[in-house]
Amino acid sequence: MTRVLALLLALAAPAAAQPADPAPYRAAFDACAAGEAPRDCIGDTAQVCMEAEEGGYTTLGMTGCTMMEQGLWDEVLNAEWPGHRAAAQAQDEAERPYFDGQFSKADERLLAAQRAWIAFRDADCSAAGASWGSGSMRHIEYAGCSLHHTAERVLDLRALWARN
Amino acid sequence: MTRWLALVLLATPALADDLPFDPAIVEACFGSAPSADCIGRAAAACTAETGSNVGYARCNTAEWEVWDAELNRSYRALIDLTRAEDAELKDLGSALPPTEPTLRAAQRAWVAWRDAQCAYTRSTFGGGTGGGPAEAECRMRLTAEQALRLDAELAGQGG
Predict the structure, then answer these.
(1) What's the ipTM?
(2) Which among B117, B125, B142 is the top mutation candidate for probing chain A, defined by the most A β-carbons within 10 Å of its own β-carbon?
(3) Please, what is the Cα angle at A97 between A96 and A101, to 5 degrees?
């Protein structure tokens, strides 16, 4: 019993902030992410969560709400990713009969760009968090940085093919 | 008339002699709260006069050069500030790892991402002639966004 309690307490330590349950916020988030001006609502879901959840404005609460919205954007990114791959592959196929196929590189470069973006997001948010030293603000900062990068990535990837 | 032209040339010594590009339009965007609307304004004014894909690419490259100089300036200022803070914390006996290496790692990762992202943008044009100009626009835009982010960071740290 004592060991279980000790373990549970250890798991509840601040470093192990868990994302809030997205269920109550999903419908409003989806409506905005799929709507006309998704850029305007980046961060709104986290904000609503902080107001609604008990302890939403504690460090743990803010971090959990921000991680929750980051997770929702990540879901959108993953859901739309196959479409981006398909568009790049279709472009490559259409181009293949010409110039010996030397310009059929969209799919390969999309993958390279996405890998480079993940590395950039993580390095950038580590730097943003590090500027807060060991203070608990660094968790909120890291989560907020990751949320903004992920949301912007969703919109950037959409914009590239909307152009064509 | 000829004297006016001479003045215009003198005002833009570092840029291609015949490009109707005004760096002051870009510089007006510096340092303020990130205003993404500013990005591309100078290149657009330039392209309106040159027309053509080649003009578009050259105008965007000209704007990129101005943003790149601004990015280098803010990056160096941030590094200096961070290094000073790291040294101060160390003097106080702090066991915290220094922040400067994380900033350098982030900037290296940004450069790699910018290049990969703009290569991808180019490839979405296949063998079309729009690819080169689109890559130039992409590099200008991402550089500008990073410069404005670092400017804001610097302002937030009192730099």
Answers:
(1) 0.85
(2) B117
(3) 40
